[in-house]
Amino acid sequence: MSKLLSLKLEKGNTIYGTCVSSMAPLWSKAVGNAGLDFVFIDTEHIPLERMEVAAMCQLYAAQGIAPIVRIPSPDPYKACQMIDAGAEGIVAPYVESEEQIKDMVGALKYKPLKGEKLKAILEHPKTIEPDLKGYVETYNRGNLCIINIESIPAVEKLDELLKVPGLDGVFIGPHDLSVNMGLPEMYDHPEFEKVVAIIIKKCRENNIAVGIHFSESPERQVKWISEGANIVIHSSDIAIFSQQLSKDINKIRNSIGDVSHQSTGNITI
Amino acid sequence: MSKLLSLKLEKGNTIYGTCVSSMAPLWSKAVGNAGLDFVFIDTEHIPLERMEVAAMCQLYAAQGIAPIVRIPSPDPYKACQMIDAGAEGIVAPYVESEEQIKDMVGALKYKPLKGEKLKAILEHPKTIEPDLKGYVETYNRGNLCIINIESIPAVEKLDELLKVPGLDGVFIGPHDLSVNMGLPEMYDHPEFEKVVAIIIKKCRENNIAVGIHFSESPERQVKWISEGANIVIHSSDIAIFSQQLSKDINKIRNSIGDVSHQSTGNITI
Amino acid sequence: MSKLLSLKLEKGNTIYGTCVSSMAPLWSKAVGNAGLDFVFIDTEHIPLERMEVAAMCQLYAAQGIAPIVRIPSPDPYKACQMIDAGAEGIVAPYVESEEQIKDMVGALKYKPLKGEKLKAILEHPKTIEPDLKGYVETYNRGNLCIINIESIPAVEKLDELLKVPGLDGVFIGPHDLSVNMGLPEMYDHPEFEKVVAIIIKKCRENNIAVGIHFSESPERQVKWISEGANIVIHSSDIAIFSQQLSKDINKIRNSIGDVSHQSTGNITI
Amino acid sequence: MSKLLSLKLEKGNTIYGTCVSSMAPLWSKAVGNAGLDFVFIDTEHIPLERMEVAAMCQLYAAQGIAPIVRIPSPDPYKACQMIDAGAEGIVAPYVESEEQIKDMVGALKYKPLKGEKLKAILEHPKTIEPDLKGYVETYNRGNLCIINIESIPAVEKLDELLKVPGLDGVFIGPHDLSVNMGLPEMYDHPEFEKVVAIIIKKCRENNIAVGIHFSESPERQVKWISEGANIVIHSSDIAIFSQQLSKDINKIRNSIGDVSHQSTGNITI
Amino acid sequence: MSKLLSLKLEKGNTIYGTCVSSMAPLWSKAVGNAGLDFVFIDTEHIPLERMEVAAMCQLYAAQGIAPIVRIPSPDPYKACQMIDAGAEGIVAPYVESEEQIKDMVGALKYKPLKGEKLKAILEHPKTIEPDLKGYVETYNRGNLCIINIESIPAVEKLDELLKVPGLDGVFIGPHDLSVNMGLPEMYDHPEFEKVVAIIIKKCRENNIAVGIHFSESPERQVKWISEGANIVIHSSDIAIFSQQLSKDINKIRNSIGDVSHQSTGNITI
Amino acid sequence: MSKLLSLKLEKGNTIYGTCVSSMAPLWSKAVGNAGLDFVFIDTEHIPLERMEVAAMCQLYAAQGIAPIVRIPSPDPYKACQMIDAGAEGIVAPYVESEEQIKDMVGALKYKPLKGEKLKAILEHPKTIEPDLKGYVETYNRGNLCIINIESIPAVEKLDELLKVPGLDGVFIGPHDLSVNMGLPEMYDHPEFEKVVAIIIKKCRENNIAVGIHFSESPERQVKWISEGANIVIHSSDIAIFSQQLSKDINKIRNSIGDVSHQSTGNITI
């Protein structure tokens, strides 16, 4: 149960995951069967609280599947709670400033330091006593610090953001990014594709892992990997279930001459 | 929120459902999007208890999706509990005798009668006082009494079983049936297919609704409908998620030259 | 937190309770404010499971309010589980035979004896070794054994039922009784009133505590007390909330000229 | 399940609701029976978390009863979480500044915009691109933005507060307001009544819906409606249960000569 | 996550476990730290339901700690439910007949066979078709069938009981056994010790694993191992916490001159 | 159920508690058996949410054991939520400024005042109207305001911090303090011991109650009491269980010649 995901990334592996929103205890077998490296547990949009997240983190971690938790806002207290609950990585949503990343690094790489002392170290990392440095490195080994890049202001200052020491990865949020660009849900728009390609490229140049959380066809993931992405965050349990169930039921209806059902909406996260 | 599934069956509709094992509250939208008539909540094999089943029943029923609950054994007390929790139909597993069906009919069509009085009425249905008859008919309107046929002894006495007054439907359990036949999981075996066809035929001759709970390709459901089945119980959330996730992830792995993952087992219910 | 309800009954007090179906932790203050002696937790009709019942039992007992739990059927294993969870009394529903009462007495007065030894003692109570008798008496002190009388067959053999050693109380179930009499929900019918009066009278002659669980006006309880009842089981949280909310809202609607809402049904337990 | 409460308000209807603190799944029937338009789910004072609120929101919304959720503080992240959980309206407690309202409007009317872009739009609403405007309007249709006015500083700047574009409604918090005025719980005090009347009048002049959450007699609601209020938030499940139970039990005690119980406190929210 | 406990027993290892009643997700680390082979999850006396047991089973199994579940009564349906939830072994309480053991063997070694076919096979094990035999052996590999011996009638027919094919282990229940012997809680009584020694001896002669669930000093376990026991079921979380907390607090009180607290009772399971 | 812990402190008693992380309902008996005055419920590090904390607070308070809740950050909204849930005292972690303490005092001693009015009163406590002062004193009677001192910056300004009116107690956090001092987990280091002694001394000089939360030997608590501490916060359920279980199991292993298990880590909070 040691935290191995960071090692896999260091070795240059592509790592694979999906977003899981159901806490049914037998769910973890489905994820295990697919040979995934991590699950993405999104507490920004999915109603899951600490007790549920803790149970999920402990269960997936015990199976060797790293639990990566998105917190609702870039709040270092929330990050610490999720690490205590068993998360191996934290995703902070909608990050647009170096300050926000430093806060997350403080929570994920210097735990249990807090308050004035932590503030001083984050401003001048070299001032930390060597013994203490060793202690917090061991204490926080394997904790991954990941941010969501999902807005133009973030893309514009990406060079600065990616250079904050302690940052490990970037998850691109396609829905928010497309809306922020004024191209809502137009994931095929060349401007959108261009921005995604830029983010991937800059991340890899800065040795930051990068992936995009996308709930549609797996072919997209292949394309982004070809552009440099090394994290696959493929869809979610509820999107896969919803899309495939509708497809199957309509196939049956059509075969027997029943009227096909028009879905009233998409379920993605 | 009146119980409408029995009406749909009476009108000759084919009704559609899936098995749901996750109690995540957003799940019901996925089922609604697919235009389903009912959900099959299986408490025989899935760890779900009364509180969870009650929450699911209330939620699906409020959306106009009928909750059909399988109880762990043909126990009339359990059937009553699930009706009180909001179920619109009960599936009793592995039924092999008329006595078991009568017990279920007592729980589902004569509630709240119990004890000696109920026993007497089940033996001699005509002895019930007319006023009381009217009361219990109204009280239990729309409650569906469904049994699992999943063994050779049950098939051998199917004619008697299907004639018990009050029985509404049959769910064929393919796993148990195939094992009972000594053909475990050989769903393509001609003997297995023959027995399924016989059950479907006899049910429809006796005006009993019938379907088969199957977690693989939707094409099978089309075949069974062509043989007379009028209930589609297509797969389950966990089977669809597990199968499709593995397929998608292997597609990505193969495309980028990663080694494909060998699933260690099937997840069906 | 010793079990005091049995003492109150022995002293000749009238004891007061209500049926509670919500497990919201602040609920117990509402019950405390009304000065109740016990809560009636009904697991026959209300979806509440062991975990929830245990939490409720521990909380009410800690406040000096005795938790009395109705189990779904006269099953001694269920009775033991609820005593282990903290219940001070068990109500077995729809009892019609001495055998059923003996089973409950075995579970409630001879715990942890079971199996062949218990069977022998229940048949010949005097054969128990004196030391063991003392041990189980202390071990089970304060456990109340209560049965539901709610059918004509039970009324007909009431004299025998009430004489089973170890029986402490009777709860009359008005809904089931009225249906069993062929007078569904006709609680004002003279035949129904007569049978209730007989049950109350016989119970008190046999020194058995008795009450009736009724979800309408408190005046009825007064009438039954005047006939000898010494347990008040007045309504339930959901019935009181539902009835009073409808009354209040309609009062507001009427006052301002809005159309009054026609309730679509009664909520009682 | 479309969000209809805002439409009812636009049409000039008086809308009716109550505060619900129990998550028992059968509760929603009691609310439905009373013909209510909405439930008020208060997460400021009642211990209810996201999982529970999501289950309640989905269930009430499926029945056509709009779930309105009060968050613990005027925090836009919390507002987004509750909308994701299924809320149709958010109540921000103890608002005293235009900035707080703008934050809520950002969360409820411009979702999923965030960060710098949202900040710019909230400051200069006309700068939003027309296409994007259309998208977020559709995306957020029916989300109600409600604030609690419950202090003198808020009343003093009410004209400014009520003019923030996007604000839909005001809930008056009588307990906090009375304490803030130095007239704790003196709801009959003429000064208190005067301030309530002023808030109602100003709201309606600004075309803002308004109501007052009050746990005592329904006659008060009638009075406030006559002053212009168009939202009735009548009492709560726990207050109605506690008050009526105490009344009924004391009626029984008095009738039979038992000592009446002195309640040790009020339960309101 | 394959079921390994049966292998460890076959190899002649002594296996170690404790009883766990808390479902806090971090608990499993405490059990892991002690190097245990299994946890004993007791649903006979502890209020834990299927959902909780399933979560615990999945979590402990994922860590390589086998979950062994005691069901409330020797009910094969309950046994199947717990295996479906992830249990690797089932303990049936208070077994006194060969019939009860056969029922458990049916549930644990012949799953998913049921009904008439299973009955016939249990009576004449050799009549099972060879292919089907292979299938159910694979399907049920590693499922442990354990019974509680805790009464004199059971001891008297121990030779017959231990010879039922498919039985794997015996847990001695000291509390029930001592009460059944008329020596309640007299665990030092020579008669009690003698009976325990006999049970251990007979089990090992029949190649049945055996242990005793005891919540006091570890020295007792050493003694029973010396007599032949090969399963250690040492105490429970709540007994260890309760005993040690009282000891520590009294040590502090005594050291500083505060009055020592007299515990009002023992907490064991 | 009145809040008595503050009274015990005023009378000069040493008060005793432990940290409880399991919400199993029978747990409270274990705490009651040890004669404790309070439980420490830590929501900073332990995954426990409002629903669970509310259930625990109500249960422990009903037994006369005061629930003291640590919130994840010094956030007055969180403090109010926990008081509403039934907490009798709040611990704010890692406090380093007078402003933070004032925020907590506002939440705990002036509830339900908020916003501008509360701000003005906290700055100039004497400006509160006498009637209102009386009201909030009664309303908040018994609420304990406790802070964690666990850093050198806090120790350096301890004199100012301890003089903020309304502060009741200090919990020393040994882990954070030792790390902040650059002496991680070196609880025997003379520098660490010296700082603890200073904090204790200054607290008692300012009539502030003080204790240290420590998960190892009870002898330490005796030492700190001798230095002036008047609160004992001895270990936690999970630490006691983990430490004692490992000790017992290794004792058994060693006695029978099995290899002793090397624990892979400590479980403390």
UniProtKB/TrEMBL annotation, chains A, B, C, D, E, F:
The keyword Metal-binding applies. Pfam families: HpcH_HpaI. GO terms for cellular component: cytoplasm. The keyword Membrane does not apply. Keywords: Lyase, Metal-binding. It comes from the Bacteria. Residues 22-238 form the HpcH/HpaI aldolase/citrate lyase domain. InterPro entries: Aldolase/citrate-lyase_domain, HpcH-HpaI_aldolase, Pyrv/PenolPyrv_kinase-like_dom, Pyrv_kinase-like_dom_sf. GO terms for molecular function: aldehyde-lyase activity; metal ion binding. Belongs to the HpcH/HpaI aldolase family. This is Aldolase/citrate lyase family protein. It comes from Draconibacterium aestuarii.
